[in-house]
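Field reference: "sequence" (input) and "structure" (output). Example, Peroxidase:
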Amino acid sequence: MATTRTFLVLFSLACSLTLCICDDESNYGGGEGNLFPGFYRSSCPKAEEIVRSVVAQAVAKEARMAASLMRLHFHDCFVQGCDGSLLLDSSGSIVTEKGSNPNSNSARGFDVVDQIKAALENECPGTVSCADLLTLAARDSSVLTGGPSWMVPLGRRDSRSASLSGSNNNIPAPNNTFNTILSRFNNQGLDLTDLVALSGSHTIGFSRCTSFRQRLYNQSGNGSPDITLEQSYATNLRQRCPPSGGDQNLSELDINSAGKFDNSYFKNLIENMGLLNSDQVLFSSNEESSELVKTYAEDQEEFFEQFAESMIKMGNLSPLTGSSGEIRKNCRKINS
């Protein structure tokens, strides 16, 4: 118990060491619509503290949760913008995005989102959106695992709809080609630098066997493995991911430091030890992307700075603001 308390205190201190971005609307020069870091300063001044506390407790209980929460934010923003649509369960005319190919049996952390929302509703009912709490949770997940921090522009509202087709079509798949992945990022207003930097989030977390089996046994449909995959690494992966069965078996996205947010991921790519095809193509399929991989592998600080910048940029995708959308009382369903 004492260790957990010490962990939470240190985390709170770490979160105060953010990038220097002003926290009020008049001084904030970036953002989208009416988003700015100090949005809840008067209406719910403890909002960020509450999110930070619940996320810290969840990650202290299960380290993997940091990557899971960050992934929820990615998958939310790539569908209808960062509007909390991913969090909705099926109800009435709403067909949940949780059942899409990228999310089914994979997306997790919804119970932690529920805990955060309940704590926020207890402190300041009907004030903080699910879209905002998810954006804050992603930032806090980075800090908790040793990654960068940044001031999060806030003021998003929640959608009253979801898009199963958008989830299936917009989110890059593990076996996509480089050009397909870049195209899906470009469609969201994100560029090649954002793609490489944001992919660096795979320095933490795990992936299921079903997401990388093709590389081990049938990369090009001819019954042969991916020749770009380092052989001893491939042999190790086959022990946990057989040709059939074991779909849910997990392997680390970053074999060297799966629980620490650092630049080891990029070093792995240079050694042909990226777990997913969508990881390795960043180094093997495009010269400009390859140079960025080398840069981030050599300079962790530059990676951290770009990751924070790209996370802010992604978090500003098509937000609902003003009178659009709503502030859900329960992140799983629209208000009556």
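Residues 1-32 have pLDDT under 50 and may be disordered.
Residues 46-205+253-316 form a domain with the Peroxidase; domain 1 fold (CATH 1.10.520.10).
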